[in-house]
Design a protein that fits this description.
By secondary structure, this protein is of the alpha/beta class. It has two domains: about 170 residues, NAD(P)-binding Rossmann-like Domain (Rossmann fold); about 45 residues, no CATH class. It is built from eight helices and six strands. Strands 3-2-1-4-5-6 form a six-stranded parallel β-sheet. It is globular, with a radius of gyration of 21 Å.
């Protein structure tokens, strides 16, 4: 399937765990399936001082193993790497975003800014994009956590909403289903519909699927507690629910 729309995918947190294990492998699968416009580009942004070749070597080393489970089509992989451009900048320094603006200038199409960072950087990134005029003809994707609590979540949504229109914003929060699962007993016994149905007389079996093969690993080690929230990996160790 071929897409009719051209876009530039800008990935903040381009050397992060989420990008390595999920986002870049998914983009490769879309590329291999012909779902990305031939002119589409993937611009990865992180603070590491890497050139294009060094970053593509990083992708080769760290991302390729996560797509090899489905078999790697080498010609497709090589053409995928050619789509990727790297921009090194400090996301905490708004003035550095001029570098990003200049890097995107040669490319047309809608810009999709995928913010795969800690929530403390959501608003600074959006404001910096606005300061250099990159919030026009763009989409913004906010990838978990949407704040540390209800108050901070509202603050993020309010601030981002002043910069981007609602139809420009796409939010992803993996933890929104956590509390309903924790409250299954309360949900059953306080609900007149579920209570009579969720009994042993009517339930034949219960299946629990744990699809994750990966644990917290080093993302939850003690060093995170010494980092600032602008550089932390945003794991449960630092921000328990």
């Amino acid at each position: 399937m071929q897409s009719d729309s051209n876009f530039i995918f800008v990935l903040f947190g381009g050397t992060g765990d989420l990008s390595m294990r999920k986002i870049l492998p998914a983009l490769f699968e879309a590329h291999r399936a012909g779902m990305i416009d031939p002119a589409g580009r993937i611009v990865c942004v992180a603070r590491e001082a890497l050139d294009q070749n060094a970053y593509r070597a990083w992708v080769e080393e760290h991302v390729k193993p996560h797509v090899s489970k489905n078999g790697v089509d080498e010609p497709a992989w090589r053409s995928f790497l050619e789509r990727i451009q790297y921009v090194g900048l400090d996301l905490g320094h708004a003035e550095d975003f001029v570098v990003l603006r200049d890097a995107l200038a040669p490319y047309g199409g809608t810009r999709v800014f995928y913010v795969a960072t800690g929530p403390s950087l959501f608003v600074p990134i959006c404001r910096a994009l606005s300061d250099v005029g990159l919030n026009q003809h763009a989409r913004i994707v906010l990838e978990k956590l949407l704040g540390y609590d209800f108050e901070s979540s509202n603050a993020i949504n309010d601030a981002v909403g002043e910069i981007f229109q609602e139809d420009q914003i796409y939010r992803i929060d993996h933890y929104l289903g956590k509390e309903p699962v924790q409250n299954l007993l309360a949900l059953r016994f306080s609900n007149v519909l579920f209570e009579p149905l969720w009994r042993r007389e009517w339930v034949e079996s219960i299946q629990i699927t744990i699809a994750e093969e990966l644990g917290v690993e080093a993302r939850g080690d003690a060093r995170c507690a010494t980092w600032s929230r602008t550089t932390c990996c945003n794991c449960f160790h630092c921000f328990p629910s």
